[in-house]
Write a structure and sequence with these properties.
alpha/beta; Rossmann fold; nine-stranded mixed sheet; 9 helices; hydrolase; Dienelactone hydrolase-like enzyme; hydrolase activity
């Protein structure tokens, strides 16, 4: 019987119990932001990569959400122009994660465990998260939300990524989508969970509503984004804190409301591949 996530997904989709602090990464040499719980020792941490022409402020609620559940987030605000260098964004994410693990945060009462590090990204940043994690022994988990194509190819790089993964894609045809999340998951070398969020899209995940309305690419999708946040939070809490009550969030075939998991031939079909590929 497949695992069912409904028991915890609703709770994890909402704000967590921790008060959140927001600061700058610039002091450490990387332009960006850091989101942390107000206190804690040996905390898990993730580097977060943004989508094309997006900035950290476009993910403010999502990054606060993760921090409210006890996860430190470092988010480079680099490569935000029309012609970003994906390899450089991946390098900035890796540098930011090293900073998080190497210094005391807040007023010195917040520390990160070097054994609890992960990479997370959206769109272009999802691909960069994969690139930053290949052959990186410090990374224990990777999550790519509506990942987009990158150069070098994250889809090809995933064949060498033997780290637990979560890939979130869309159940809808998104004319603005810039990647094939299902194929990225299909290529993943290690254990991976691929979820399609009902009505969720790559463009709908960010919080820059006025900008999106102005250029005609839709609006912020509150419900699907909450679901994606819950799936992401449960996955990270399981992989980076070993909380057994969330282990089903890493199960490839998990079931629940407002999303669908694809495995085997269903995943291959969504990826557009055949047995000969």
């Amino acid at each position: 019987m497949s695992a069912n996530l409904n028991k915890h997904l609703g709770t994890l989709s909402k704000r967590g119990p921790h008060r959140v602090l927001v600061g700058d990464l610039d002091y450490a040499g990387v332009h960006g932001k850091v989101y942390t719980p107000a206190e804690g020792e040996g905390l898990p941490a993730v580097a977060f990569g943004h989508d094309w022409i997006k900035k950290v402020k476009d993910y403010h609620a999502t990054l606060r959400h993760l921090a409210s559940w006890g996860i430190v987030v470092v988010a480079p605000d680099t490569e935000t122009g029309f012609f970003p260098n994906h390899r450089n964004l991946a390098a900035d994410m890796e540098s930011a994660l090293q900073i998080a693990a190497g210094v005391k945060l807040g007023a010195g009462n917040i520390t990160v465990s070097a054994k609890r590090l992960g990479m997370v990204g959206h769109g272009m940043g999802g691909g960069a998260a994969v690139l930053a994690s290949v052959d990186n022994s410090k990374v224990r988990a990777v999550a790519a939300l509506y990942p987009a194509s990158t150069a070098p190819s994250a889809t090809k790089a995933a064949r060498h990524l033997d780290v637990p993964g979560l890939v979130i894609g869309s159940s809808r045809t998104d004319i603005f989508g810039a990647g094939n999340p299902a194929k990225l998951a299909y290529n993943w070398k290690g254990k991976v969970a691929y979820r399609e969020v009902d009505k969720g899209t790559q463009q709908g995940f960010t919080e820059d509503t006025l900008k999106k309305l102005a250029i005609g690419v839709g609006a912020f999708q509150g419900g699907p984004t909450e679901t994606a946040r819950g799936l992401l939070t449960g996955f990270l809490l399981h992989q980076l804190t070993s909380e057994n009550k969330y282990d089903d969030f890493s199960a490839p075939d998990a079931e629940g409301k407002k999303f669908e998991s694809l495995t085997g031939e269903d995943l291959a079909e969504a990826a557009g591949v055949t047995r000969d590929d």
